[in-house]
Each structure stands twice: as C-alpha cells, then as structure tokens.
C-alpha cells in the first residue's frame, strides 16, 4: 500500500484514490501519461530510498494507481503527498521533509521558478495533443517569409519531435522548450505554443521579446494571435505603488518556501520598510486565503512572496491590496535604476543595489495621488509621547503601548483579543458529557 504524507492532512475530498480502481486516466494510458518506466529508472539510477510523488489536485485521482505501479516495478514503498504546503506548481520539499525523503517526482504543471530545494526532483509534465498539420499550415501562412523562434510549453514537449519535423523545412527556425534559458531571444519575435496566458505574460516580462504570437492547440478554432500586454497591469502597478507610499503597516506574507532567494527578498523588503519608517509584520499562514488574511485588519497592504504563476495578485476578494516585491521596490527605493516589472523577483533581484548603498532623503516630500495629502519621507520614526495612566495597557506578560499607529493600538481597541487564561475569573467545573449527534441536529435539541 503506498504511504501518504501531508503537510496538514490527507484530503480525501480532493479525490485521492486509495484502491486499485481506475482514476481519471484510462489504465492503458497510465504508463505513457505518467512515464512510470522513466520514473523507476531515475529512482534506481540514483539509489533513492524514500521517494515522494507530488500531484496537483486535478491529478490526485490517479495518484494511488501510479504509486502501486511504481512499487510493483521497484519493490519498495513510495509516498504520496496528499496536500501541498503552498502552490502545487512548485516542488514541495517542505512536505517531503516530514518523512526525510531523498527525492520528489513532481507531476503536472510547473512554474519553472528557480528552486531553493536541496532535494533531488524530477518533473513529469502533463501531455496534451496537438494537430501538427494545422501548426504547419498556420506557420506557413504567417511566417514563411520571416521565420520566428518557437517556444514549446511543457504540455507539448512530448510532441517536440513532431513539431520539429513539420517546421524543419524553414531553415531559420529555432525551437526551444520552456525549461531552457531563453535570454538569447530577447528582442526577437517568438511563437509560444501552449495553453497558459499567464506563462506568456511571465515570459514576455522576463525576457523582453520584441513580439509574441500565441498558439493554443486546445482552442477549437486554433490560430496564431499576437500577444498584447494588458495596459491595466501597469495602471494597477502605479495605483499599488501609491497605496504602499500611503501605508504605515505592511504585512509580508510568506507564500513559498520553494522559490530560490525567498529569504533574501524577505530581508530586503524588511530593510526597505524600516528605512522608510514604516512597520512590517511577517505572516505565515500556509496557503493564503481571504479569511486567513482578514485576521490582520491592521495591515494597510500585503506583499506576497510567492512564485510568478500565483494568481493571487489578480484577486479582488481580499480586504487589503496584494502587492508584489517589485511594487515595494518601486515605492520605497528611490534608486531603482530602471528595473523592469516582473512577477518573478529573481528576474530583477540581481539588478538592484544593496540596501546599504541606497541614500534616503529625510526631507523628501510629495503629494499622494490617492488622497491629495502631502507625504513626508518619515524615515525617522516618531518618538512616543510622555506616558500617563491611560496610555498603557497592562498585561500579565508585558506592556503594550497604546499611543501607536501600529498593531498594539489595534489590539487594544479590539473587544476580543484571542484566547486568554483569565486566571481566577472563570469558575472551575468538572468534565461532563458533551453533545451527541450531527451538528445540524444534536440529540438533545428540540425539533
């Protein structure tokens, strides 16, 4: 029986298949779809003993059958990650560390973020069909005279030979896969073959292609469409920069532990916030949700440290704005040196100056474009006024200053501040039987 490991709990509601009954993929296709032989060879070659299988939610129904087949081939136990700590597109080495795993096989969509993981991992991509004859016809119609460079997304890498065969007549065509280094294509015209609009946006912002054409084979009437970056992305960036400048308290939300340099970007953001005389709180709540972040109403904005494929930046459901590390950089760093916007902080982190070399002007003032009020640099934090009897809240474990614009004042104003001991105030009672039955109708309730 394959073993299940989870950072929280294995969720059966997500479709984990615990029996030999078939999942969503026909049994005869499992070998090819999940490349079981390739996985087994990789494990044997490296001598791995504890291997975790990571599936996105929509592929979990096949997970147990894939695990059973791998175990039959290998003669050893493999583990299924029943839940991922953050985004399923990133290698979840945190969950795998619960059983001291020495390798992870990651199935499904991947964001190709630079990984911070020290554990070995293997990517097995999804596999979709592509009409190569249609591709050939459309390519000839649009680019026969001026060939472009082709970038193939992960879902179609298994068809790479067919794609190369139909385009080999065009001698100037260069074909790349998305996991390759695409920096050589900067300033060139690119044809992207894939299904994800967000990947096109990330590639365009990261590598600065001259033009990008998008071909989605899954569309019923597939055609080449020229990609145009939505102007609202940059309008939103300018709005969020103003929100950051107006803010006094910023929440740094840890949305990944698997993307390279996540600690470096957190430390940089903390120093930038401190240099501007603002307050920050470091928040770790697993996968961020509206309900979780609503527990911190004292935050003016949240900066999310996550991978570039996370859609949370586009969400309008949160009670406070969600900003990117780039937005923080642009708002609080007076010398950004013309860095280009990217959802991936690793795309510009190497191009920014060290915090120590950044000069802050204490006399800097400007006008908020949102409120119309004059803003000061506020680099030196305000001194607390002289304390009197009504300016302190005494607690058994310390003192909280009320004359503050930050978290302490918010806590003091709350009518419910969380679970407290209330020693000597609560009557001590013996344990007694509780309610029985279902929550919608307990046995002792009147109907």
Task: Explain this structure.
The longest helix has 16 residues, at 231-246. It is built from 12 helices and 20 strands. A hairpin with a 6-residue loop joins strand 15 (365-367) and strand 16. The protein has a 5-stranded parallel sheet. A 5-stranded mixed sheet has the order 7-6-8-9-10, with no helix packed on it. Strands 12-11-13-14 form a 4-stranded parallel sheet. It folds into 4 domains: 3-124, Rossmann fold, CATH 3.40.50; 132-226, Rossmann fold (3-Layer(aba) Sandwich), CATH 3.40.50.2020; 245-376, Diphthamide synthesis DPH1/DPH2 domain 3 (Rossmann fold), CATH 3.40.50.11860; 387-447, no CATH class. The chain is 25% helix and 18% strand. It is an alpha/beta fold. Helix 9 runs parallel beside helix 11 (325-332).
* Level-1 CATH class name of the largest domain: Alpha Beta
Q: How helix-rich are the residues, as a percent range?
A: 10-25%
Measured by DSSP, the beta-strand proportion falls in: 15-25%
Would you tell me the structural class of the helices and strands? Answer: alpha/beta
CATH level 3 topology of the largest domain: Rossmann fold
Poorly predicted regions are 1-22, 379-400
- Count every helix, treating DSSP H or I runs of 4 or more residues as helices: 12
**Anisotropy-based shape:** globular
Mean pLDDT: 81
Q: Which CATH architecture of the largest domain is right? A: 3-Layer(aba) Sandwich
Annotated CATH homologous superfamily of the largest domain: Diphthamide synthesis DPH1/DPH2 domain 3
Biggest sheet, in brief?
5 strands, parallel
């Amino acid at each position: 029986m394959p073993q299940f490991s989870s950072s929280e709990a294995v969720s059966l509601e997500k479709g984990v298949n615990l029996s030999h009954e078939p999942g969503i993929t026909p049994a005869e296709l499992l070998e090819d779809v999940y490349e079981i032989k390739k996985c087994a060879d990789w494990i044997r070659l490296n001598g791995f003993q504890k291997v975790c299988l990571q599936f996105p939610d929509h592929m979990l129904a096949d997970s147990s059958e894939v695990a059973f087949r791998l175990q039959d081939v290998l003669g050893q136990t493999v583990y299924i990650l029943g839940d991922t700590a953050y985004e399923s597109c990133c290698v979840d080495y945190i969950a795998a560390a619960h059983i001291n795993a020495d390798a992870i096989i990651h199935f499904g969509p991947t964001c190709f973020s630079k990984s911070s993981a020290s554990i070995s991992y293997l990517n097995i991509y999804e596999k979709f069909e592509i009409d190569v004859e249609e591709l050939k016809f459309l390519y000839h119609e649009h680019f026969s005279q001026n060939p472009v460079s082709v970038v193939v997304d992960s879902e179609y890498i298994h068809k790479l030979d067919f794609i190369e065969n139909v385009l080999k007549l065009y001698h100037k065509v260069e074909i790349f896969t998305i996991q390759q280094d695409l920096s050589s294509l900067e300033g060139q015209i690119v044809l992207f073959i894939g299904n994800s609009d967000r990947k096109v946006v990330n590639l365009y912002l990261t590598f600065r292609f001259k033009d990008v054409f998008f071909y989605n084979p899954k569309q019923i009437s597939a055609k080449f469409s020229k990609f145009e970056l939505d102007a609202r992305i940059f309008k939103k960036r300018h709005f969020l920069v103003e929100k950051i400048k107006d803010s006094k308290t910023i929440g740094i939300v840890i949305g990944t532990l698997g993307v390279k340099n996540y600690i470096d970007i957190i430390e940089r953001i903390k120093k930038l916030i401190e240099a501007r005389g603002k307050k920050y709180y470091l928040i770790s709540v697993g996968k961020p949700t509206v309900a979780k972040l609503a527990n911190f109403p004292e935050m003016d904005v949240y900066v999310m440290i996550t991978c570039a494929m996370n859609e949370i930046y586009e969400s309008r459901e949160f009670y406070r704005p969600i900003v990117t590390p780039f937005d923080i950089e642009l708002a609080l760093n007076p010398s950004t040196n013309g860095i280009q916007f990217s959802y991936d902080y690793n795309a510009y982190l190497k191009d920014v100056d060290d915090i120590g070399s950044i000069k802050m002007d204490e006399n800097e003032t400007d006008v908020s474009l949102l409120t119309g009020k004059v803003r000061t640099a506020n680099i030196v934090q305000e001194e607390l006024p002289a304390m009197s009897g009504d300016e302190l809240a005494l607690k058994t474990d310390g003192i909280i200053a009320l004359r503050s614009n930050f978290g302490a004042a918010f806590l003091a104003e709350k009518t419910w501040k969380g679970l407290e001991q209330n020693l000597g105030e609560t009557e001590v009672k013996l344990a007694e039987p509780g309610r029985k039955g279902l929550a919608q109708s307990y046995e002792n309730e009147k109907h």
